[in-house]
Amino acid sequence: MTAAIPSEARFKPRNLLGIILFLRKYPGPVGLCLSLLLVNIGIEMALPQIIGDTITNLRRAVTANVAFSPGFHVKLLVAHPRSATFAAPFITPSKGWPSPITTRPTLVN
């Protein structure tokens, strides 16, 4: 037997429109979340650049026969994830913890 084809499509353009219309009521929290998300994406995109610059500087130091001091690069690499963890709780709060930007109380089961 053949399976019945569902009459409703899984993706409806009006669903996305409905979400956008719903979020229009909360411009402050939505703007804050989007800006923190962009900050987090920017931080994550900078990590390969830091590693690449470190490798390039190491290669230049080896070819020029000078001492390579990795202290600055190590500090930058360690500080990088720390700055990303600042924005993460605001974007994706843990289960059971209310988001710091919500205006209504939440119920925890």
The profile of the biggest β sheet is: none
On the 0-100 scale, what is the average pLDDT?
A: 75
Q: What is the terminal separation in angstroms?
A: 43 Å
Radius of gyration: 23 Å
Overall tally of structural domains = 1
How is this fold's topology laid out?
Elements: H1 13-23, H2 27-63, H3 71-91
Helix pairs in contact: 2-3
How would you describe what is shown here?
The protein is mainly alpha-helical. It has one domain (about 15-90). The protein is about 65% helix and about 0% strand. The chain has three helices and no strands. Helix 2 (about 25-65) runs antiparallel to helix 3 (about 70-90). It is elongated and about 70 Å long. About 0% of the residues are buried. The mean pLDDT is about 75.
Q: Quick summary of this structure?
A:
This protein has 3 helices and no strands. With 109 residues, the protein is mainly α.
Spell out the key features of this protein.
109 residues, mainly alpha
